[in-house]
Amino acid sequence: MELTVQKGNILYYTLIVVVLGVPVWWNTTNTYRATLPTNEVSQLKLDQTLFSIPVSLCGVVNEKYKLTLTEAVRRLIPATGRVQYDVHFIHKEACEGLYVVEFSKDATQAELISPGRLKLNPSQSDAAQHIYSFLNIELLHKHTHSVDDPSLHLKYQDVRNAMAVATSYNVLVTVVNPDPGTIHMDLDLEEGTRSYLQPFLAKLEGIVKFTFQTQVLRYIPLSMKPLKAGDHFYISENNLPHLINPIESKLGTSTTNDINLIIYLVEPRLCPLKIKLSNGDYAAVSSFLSPQFGSIVLYDTVNKTRLEHSETFSTLLPQLKQLLGLSASSSPSLSDQDLFHIAARQTLVNILQSVDTLNSLISLVDSIPNMVIGDHIKDLVLESVAGISSARAVLAQTRIALTKDKLSKSINSSITARDSAETAFSDPSILALLYFPDDQKFAIYIPLFLPVGLPLVIAYFELIKEWRTKKVAV
Question: Pick from 217, 226, 282: which is nearest to 251 by CA?
């Protein structure tokens, strides 16, 4: 009877521990891990081409010409990179898009109708080269491919000139008067910015956010004495960076997103002040660009009582285009192609940052099996992946039509992808368990289970020993 009661107690406690204790312990200590789209994230990293730019060729030409010309153009275009050109012939009535090449027998030579439309004669032997030049592939290659190719920063000066990609910039227009006692001018910065700067920035509305400020600084002399040559003064090109230092310390800017447009009023006694280039020639305009900082105009003040903003902004705005990653054209206007290049550069940077962050998150999750992955983390990752796909899809729609709404949508989608990825990666819920690996969990739970489990194990050993004894006796 005593043995039966002992066996019953052992069975009872075993059932309590196994049927009740173990499930409760398992459910209270189990780490919830939502399933992340690992394959989709990994594919994004492997996908070298993030979006393509359609180039529409239209006109009445034979099939052999279409095939020959298309292959010739594709041989000139780089075959690798984040951005690809999709060169194809389409029906003339649907000849619309970001880049359009129209073939007409009436054309005597290559004629650039607009920044986005080229007219060619099918009989031109160098048609492929004209198309290549028209696409300005070098510009897009340098500014967008350099995003994930650091070697291009060392190779191209205009890539180093451009500001780092940001969702917003602050344009600070500064007039520097080194000697208010001798320089008396009506500056009227409000009128200048309203007439020239605001209309320029308005064209970028929806693509890049801008704010702008104006200020006047006084008593900041040139940090070096200009040299005299005949009837003028000059500063050597290699000494220009030294002019910035005393001005930069007074600007009051505090972020890397500040673009400085500086108008330095040159004292009459040093006018005209020119910039001497390294080859011995003089620059056509006394102005220079400081990489990722801004532009400076050395303004002649002789016999002037008013700051001519048409003169200064005609120099500053083209240099502002360079700071935004565009070509160094003399025109301050912006074409659809300029808007696309800015949007493509912005979108590409955000997409690459998103992809890197998502892959880092996946690697972190895989390396720590007991990390909690909540459903909200999964939702953020899915939102980021969807944002990347949406941004790429919108940019690929340029074959149909290019609008600010589409460019704005592509940038906003890429920003959503980047922000969602960063939010998921830095979420506190996945950081809290980084300090509780499995060995620490065992150290916590073993003292709880040992007092319960050890007597049961000993009891079972006693039962087995008793069973073997009876078996031998029989």
Answer: 217
